[in-house]
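Design request, tokens follow.
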């Protein structure tokens, strides 16, 4: 396990309590040994047919390397070193980040990966040319339920279309009802399901191959 920030550990305990902290530690240990993640695959043509409004003021901008400290503070994770490595890895492999602010407070982040030049181990989807994958979305818990996620997805799709991306794909845990609802609200169609098994850090049976079957 990488170096733990004890300051973050203390803050997590203060925010969520000792019981939840213990549960998270146990979950982290067992998830390395074995974990199972069933995911839905969604796809869409990069021109949205709906218009969703956020239920709070929202400003969206692209993130950069200079925002890594902002990412570290945003994620509710005591393992600061792993968070920095995770964000840097996304940037190094062609990820384009989108940050949403409400009242100068960061409330959501999301990433877009294009087909050329990004390492596919970052995603669950093998892409073709003119396709992209939206990944690693996270909304601050106190701002969930305000339509922020679908608004961000709309914004990303418009940006992707300007880059001549024809199709975009996204995955979501099958049990994450709120996330699935937000994805479908924008107009994504459910294309299938994948089953990800991780054993001692190695992932098995977790990829889906695009066949370009979305009508353009």
């Amino acid at each position: 396990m990488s170096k733990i920030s004890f300051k973050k550990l203390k803050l997590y305990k203060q925010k969520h309590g000792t019981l939840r902290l213990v549960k998270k530690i146990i979950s982290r240990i067992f998830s390395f040994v074995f974990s199972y993640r069933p995911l839905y695959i969604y796809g869409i043509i990069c021109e949205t047919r709906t218009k969703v409004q956020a239920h709070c003021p929202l400003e969206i901008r692209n993130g950069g390397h200079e925002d890594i400290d902002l990412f570290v503070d945003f994620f509710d994770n005591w393992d600061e070193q792993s968070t920095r490595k995770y964000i840097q890895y996304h940037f190094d492999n062609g990820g384009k980040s989108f940050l949403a602010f409400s009242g100068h407070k960061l409330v959501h982040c999301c990433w877009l990966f294009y087909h050329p030049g990004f390492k596919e181990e970052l995603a669950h989807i093998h892409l073709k040319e003119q396709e992209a994958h939206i990944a690693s979305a996270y909304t601050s818990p106190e701002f969930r339920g305000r339509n922020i996620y679908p608004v961000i997805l709309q914004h990303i799709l418009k940006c992707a279309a300007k880059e001549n991306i024809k199709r975009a794909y996204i995955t979501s845990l099958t049990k994450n009802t709120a996330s699935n609802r937000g994805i479908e609200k924008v107009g994504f169609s459910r294309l299938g399901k994948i089953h990800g098994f991780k054993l001692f850090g190695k992932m098995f049976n977790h990829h889906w191959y695009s066949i370009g079957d979305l009508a353009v």
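Comment from the thread starter after seeing the answer: thanks! The two ends are 45 Å apart (CA to CA).
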